[in-house]
């Protein structure tokens, strides 16, 4: 950034920006100044200002000596770096300021030269401080890791530094402690506060098999965790590294500003030379030489070059601390322009946690018997729909059936209590007296399986992947922002329509293959820039096709983070409209910066060339513009558009990322007089799921997948 603007040698500053995260965490040395007075350039500027002020009350050699001293102190902040940059062939605003200062001294204007050095050193210090502070928020993420961790080695508890943790270590985390690195829970149950990482306020319940992440805070339980990543490559460190890389990715506005600013510096040198040469031919050479020096300063594009980067860095840093990973200025611009949002159903609008929503027993059959026979057949199945059936049984012990085999595309058959039993879709098993009920449940968007025991129809079980409780609110927020919402799914039309109605979406595209989703995203571009929201894996073609690809629930998933332009680290869909509002504000801010700095630049050059403004006035105006641009850009780092939402649900089971799915009993409402138990759309029973499982899009892998179409 500094190279594009001032052309000084900013190796130390750039290094601090890009590597300070790891250095700070390892050494404890702050990577960014905590206060303005700690900035070296500003301390030098203060000293130069004092010397310059005192010189105003003196005369003769004393005044000249103090002016030269002020010049030396101020120039020391940018001249050495300018000369190093010049040796590398880089021309920047620092060179223009150096030439102007040398010229002023040559003309005997020592006070003007000292004023220029004083003001420019202030601008240099403020620029460095602003950029360092905006990036310091990211590095502060690594401070979430505790200074020490407790590990179990040779049967004894040992305190070690997080950097000394090794993969396979047994990490002991007590109530209220932070988790030092990523791992998998071996024993214990607790609720984790993940708000510092994902931005969500709802605690996440974890137990054996659940994956946990660095920086999260343990609740009331004691956890024993097997370490799966060292401190240098855990999810938190990777997140900071990815965001630092993202800050270097430039959008079209930033590239435009740099394409204009870089050639402008040598152009300014040519312009100043022409002003001096042509003016000297028709007037006093001394006057026109001084005006040429003023033009050098007036046309410096520093504020213009800073217009976009400061806002982008501030916006990305603020978003990352709210659980939204934005991968560069291009992503900020793309999401800020979005007019259409295409949302995948499974895992995005829904939680990807299939739940038994209703059990309908045949006349004369107890509801418990329906579930018992179904659970016996499903006892050894790891598919999420099977997990839903087993969770619905509750605490009742399940005896696995024998000789159970899958009938591809139809269901399961086996032996339960010595008698033949079957479970599967209507058609594989005759619906009989339950035909009407099966149709009703399918129309409600549920997957229906029938249960038969000893050739007797026992009942029907309806399973559905319930809509997220915040989905309707998130969709309403998008609509208030003027964004059209379209749901894309590979599920059948009836299931898709039911989920869309619950979420408040009217435009539904169902029964799609991944390539169909990419095609529809392309078609939607006719309505305006499109953002595609999915899981970042099987929606990769559509994510790549959209102007902005958004991955949902990406914490701990390198695949999702790499596939998308924006990654929502948590599971709250309301972060999507928040992110759009945040990036829109950032786009507005850097557009304001571009217009303001461009207008000042256009006004200063003719005023300087005609002698209306002198060197001190131009320097003051130029540096004031830079300060205004920086100050306005920092506003993009405000989090007022990234609020912490009130939870709409109770702490949920963190099994979506569990390596070993744990079957947790869930209470099912007692049946009514008709032998039915129904869960309304607003109720979500936590059930285990495995990667890729769903009620609609991937049910084809299950032997009793139902074709509701």
UniProtKB/TrEMBL annotation:
Catalytic activities: Cu(+)(in) + ATP + H2O = Cu(+)(out) + ADP + phosphate + H(+)
UniProt keyword annotations, A-Z: ATP-binding, Cell membrane, Copper, Copper transport, Ion transport, Membrane, Metal-binding, Nucleotide-binding, Translocase, Transmembrane, Transmembrane helix, Transport
GO CC list: plasma membrane
Coiled coil: none
Transmembrane segments: 46-79, 91-107, 264-282, 294-319, 594-620
Location of the P-type ATPase A domain: 144-242
One Pfam family recorded for the sequence: E1-E2_ATPase
Location(s) in or outside the cell: Cell membrane
UniProt xrefs under InterPro entries: ATPase_P-typ_cyto_dom_N, ATPase_P-typ_P_site, ATPase_P-typ_TM_dom_sf, ATPase_P-typ_transduc_dom_A_sf, ATPase_P-type_domA, Cation_Transport_ATPase_IB, HAD-like_sf, HAD_sf
Main localization (coarse): membrane
Membrane topology: Multi-pass membrane protein
Stretches for region Disordered: 1-30
Gene Ontology molecular functions: ATP binding; ATP hydrolysis activity; cadmium ion transmembrane transporter activity; metal ion binding; P-type monovalent copper transporter activity
Annotated PROSITE patterns: ATPASE_E1_E2
Root EC class: translocase
Assigned EC number: 7.2.2.8
Keyword Cell membrane (UniProt): yes
PANTHER family: CADMIUM/ZINC-TRANSPORTING ATPASE HMA2-RELATED (PTHR48085), CADMIUM_ZINC-TRANSPORTING ATPASE HMA4-RELATED (PTHR48085:SF5)
Similarity-based family: Belongs to the cation transport ATPase (P-type) (TC 3.A.3) family. Type IB subfamily.
Protein name from the UniProt record: P-type Cu(+) transporter
């Amino acid at each position: 950034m500094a190279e594009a603007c001032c052309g000084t040698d900013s190796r130390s500053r750039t290094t601090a920006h890009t590597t300070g995260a790891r250095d700070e965490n390892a050494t404890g040395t702050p990577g960014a100044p905590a206060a303005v007075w700690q900035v070296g350039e500003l301390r030098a500027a203060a000293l130069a200002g004092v010397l310059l002020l005192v010189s105003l009350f003196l005369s003769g050699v004393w005044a000249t000596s103090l002016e030269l001293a002020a010049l030396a102190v101020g120039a020391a902040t940018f001249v050495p770096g300018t000369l190093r940059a010049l040796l590398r062939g880089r021309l920047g605003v620092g060179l223009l300021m150096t030439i102007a200062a040398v010229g002023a001294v040559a003309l005997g204007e020592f006070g003007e030269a000292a004023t220029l050095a004083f003001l420019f050193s202030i601008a240099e210090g403020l620029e460095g401080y602003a950029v360092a502070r905006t990036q310091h928020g990211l590095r502060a993420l690594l401070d979430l890791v505790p200074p020490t961790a407790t590990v179990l080695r040779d049967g004894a508890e040992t305190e070690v530094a997080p950097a000394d943790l090794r993969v396979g270590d047994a990490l002991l985390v007590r109530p209220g402690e932070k988790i030092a690195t990523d791992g998998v829970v071996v024993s214990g149950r607790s609720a984790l506060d993940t708000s510092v990482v994902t931005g969500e306020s709802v605690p996440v319940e974890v137990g054996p098999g659940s994956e946990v992440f660095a920086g999260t805070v343990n609740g009331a339980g004691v956890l024993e965790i097997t370490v799966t990543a060292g401190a240098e490559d855990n999810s938190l460190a990777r997140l900071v590294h990815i965001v630092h890389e993202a800050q270097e990715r430039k959008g079209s506005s930033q590239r435009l500003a740099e394409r204009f600013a870089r050639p402008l510096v040598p152009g300014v040198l040519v312009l100043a030379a022409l002003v001096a040469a042509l003016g000297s031919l028709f007037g006093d050479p001394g006057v026109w030489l001084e005006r040429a020096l003023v033009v050098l300063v007036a046309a410096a594009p520093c504020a213009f070059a800073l217009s976009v980067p400061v806002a982008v860095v501030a916006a990305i840093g603020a978003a990352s601390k709210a659980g939204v990973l934005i991968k560069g200025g291009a992503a900020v611009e793309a999401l800020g322009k979005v007019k259409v949002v295409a949302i995948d159903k499974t895992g995005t609008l829904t939680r990807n946690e299939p739940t038994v929503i209703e059990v309908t027993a045949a006349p004369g059959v107890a509801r418990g018997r329906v579930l018992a026979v179904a659970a016996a057949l499903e006892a050894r199945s790891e598919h999420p729909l099977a997990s839903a059936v087993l969770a619905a049984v509750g605490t009742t012990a399940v005896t696995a059936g024998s000789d159970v085999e899958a009938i591809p595309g139809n269901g399961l058959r086996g032996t339960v209590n010595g008698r033949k039993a079957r479970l599967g879709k209507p058609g594989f098993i005759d619906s009989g007296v339950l035909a009407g009920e099966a149709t009703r449940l399918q129309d409600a968007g549920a997957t229906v399986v029938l249960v038969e025991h000893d050739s007797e129809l026992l009942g029907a079980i309806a399973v559905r992947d319930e809509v997220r409780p915040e989905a309707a609110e998130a969709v309403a927020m998008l609509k208030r922002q003027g964004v059209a919402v379209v749901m894309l799914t590979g599920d059948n039309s009836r299931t898709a329509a039911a989920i869309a109605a619950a979420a408040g979406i009217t435009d539904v595209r169902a029964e799609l293959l991944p390539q169909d989703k990419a095609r529809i995203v392309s078609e939607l571009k006719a309505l305006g820039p499109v953002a595609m929201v999915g899981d970042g894996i099987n929606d990769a073609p559509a994510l790549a096709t959209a102007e902005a690809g958004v991955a949902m629930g990406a914490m701990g998933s390198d695949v999702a983070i790499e596939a998308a332009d924006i990654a929502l680290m948590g599971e709250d869909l309301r972060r999507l409209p928040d992110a759009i509002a945040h990036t829109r504000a950032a786009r507005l801010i850097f557009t304001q910066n571009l217009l303001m700095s461009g207008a000042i630049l256009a006004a200063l050059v003719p005023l300087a060339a005609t002698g209306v403004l002198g060197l001190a006035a131009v320097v003051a105006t130029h540096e004031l513009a830079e300060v205004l641009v920086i100050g306005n850009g920092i506003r993009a780092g405000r989090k007022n558009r990234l609020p912490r939402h009130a939870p709409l649900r109770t702490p949920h089971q963190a099994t979506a990322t569990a390596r070993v799915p744990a079957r947790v009993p869930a209470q099912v409402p007692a049946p009514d007089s008709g032998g039915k138990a129904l869960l309304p759309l607003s109720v979500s029973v936590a059930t285990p799921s495995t990667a890729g499982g769903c009620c609609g899009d991937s049910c084809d892998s299950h032997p009793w997948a139902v074709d509701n179409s």
